[in-house]
Design brief:
The chain is an alpha+beta fold. The chain has 11 helices and 15 strands. The chain has 3 domains: 167 residues, no CATH class; 40 residues, no CATH class; 125 residues, no CATH class. α4 crosses α7 and α7 runs antiparallel to α9. The protein starts with 6 loop residues before the first strand and ends with a helix.
């Protein structure tokens, strides 16, 4: 399906504990969940995976390059038998509950509450979203903190946690990688509860450090005025085209929408680089055209193409020399060498 949400027997593998049906009425609404195990059960994600030897015509396939002592294995769901990936024989299967329950200590102590869980691409990726208690201020705006934990059964990445901040006034999600502080944390797989609680505390501490860096970075954007000409050039570089003399209608519409949100988006004044960043996040989260079903919007805004667009905008707006040079740019085909710092977003967007 276009939205990539895992479906089994016509049922979405997803739940929401917020009292709202998630992703266009595709999930299960529940309340009062306290553990990751309960969340995964509500989302119909309490299945397990197991490795099976890979063979052709009865012959077990060995590794290439003479590694005959090792063989490949197919990682399969035990409930449906579906093969999620082909991995080397030494690959260790980690079950959904074992991978994601490290946040139980934070939830159990009332520091967070599980909100949403789901699976993508038939179960290859499984994620759990926790809402951290208490609002935080960024440039005077209230922001809600979220912890997004993701694991995989196809070797695409290890268990990772990503910090996401939601601007309350407009529900825009801020998830950017910064120099010196990443919004992504790799979590070591632990077999005993004591180690898991330690990992959760470590992740929370790193999240606090990340937020402090975000505060400093966005304050600079809030203190930096953006002229109309700079904003016009910013959108041209952000959303480039091959020939500025013949700009496609779709590109014109995207630029115009970002301009509109810069001036009229919720909480924006149309004056600063912070307003410009929020215009881009507003567009990526709520107005960007999705292929097929709009249920891709959450994934895109946090993990995929929307996250990459936000990262590119932040990198540009934080570069003083680039922003100064925008006023000197001739109106012709524009490109940028700004790279996204979000490895996680790029990974899931492949």
């Amino acid at each position: 399906m276009a939205h990539e949400l895992s479906m089994q027997n016509g049922r979405a593998e997803m739940f929401s504990g917020s009292g709202l049906t998630p992703w266009h009425k595709l999930g299960t609404v529940v309340k009062g969940l306290l553990t990751a195990k309960e969340c995964l059960a509500a989302a119909h994600l309490d299945w397990t995976v197991k490795g099976f030897p890979v063979s052709v015509n009865g012959i077990t396939l060995p590794f290439p390059n003479g590694e005959t002592e090792n063989t490949w294995q197919g990682i399969c769901r035990e409930d449906t038998g579906a093969c999620l990936s082909i991995m080397k024989g030494r690959y260790e299967c980690i079950q959904n509950n074992d991978a994601l329950d490290f946040l139980d200590s934070l939830v159990g102590h009332g520091e967070a509450v599980y909100d949403t869980a789901g699976a993508l691409r038939g179960g290859k990726q499984v994620w759990l979203l926790a809402k951290v208690n208490g609002l935080r201020k960024l440039n005077g705006d209230d922001h809600q903190s979220w912890c997004l934990a993701v694991t995989s059964h196809d070797g695409s990445y290890t268990l990772m946690l990503q910090w996401v901040y939601e601007r309350v006034v407009c529900a825009n999600t801020l998830n950017i990688a910064l120099k010196g502080a990443s919004n992504q944390v790799k979590i070591r797989h632990c077999k005993n509860w004591g180690d898991k609680e330690s990992e959760a505390r470590r992740a929370l501490s790193l999240g606090n450090d990340y937020f402090a860096t975000v505060q400093e970075a966005v304050k600079k954007l809030g203190d930096s005025l953006l002229t109309p000409d700079q904003m016009a050039e910013f959108t041209r570089v952000l959303v480039p085209t091959k020939d500025e003399k013949e700009v496609p209608t779709r590109t014109q519409n995207i630029r115009a929408e970002i301009h509109r949100l810069f001036h009229r988006g919720a909480g924006n004044t149309g004056q600063t680089r912070w307003d410009a960043l929020n215009a881009v996040t507003d567009y990526a989260d709520h107005f960007q055209t999705m292929r097929g079903d709009n249920s891709t919007r959450l994934e895109s805004s946090i993990l995929g193409s929307g996250a990459l667009l936000k990262q590119k905008a932040f990198d540009m707006l934080s570069d003083d020399s680039l922003m100064r040079s925008l006023l000197e740019r001739p109106h012709k085909a524009t490109t940028t060498s700004v790279q996204s710092g979000s490895e996680f977003a790029a990974l899931l967007n492949r």
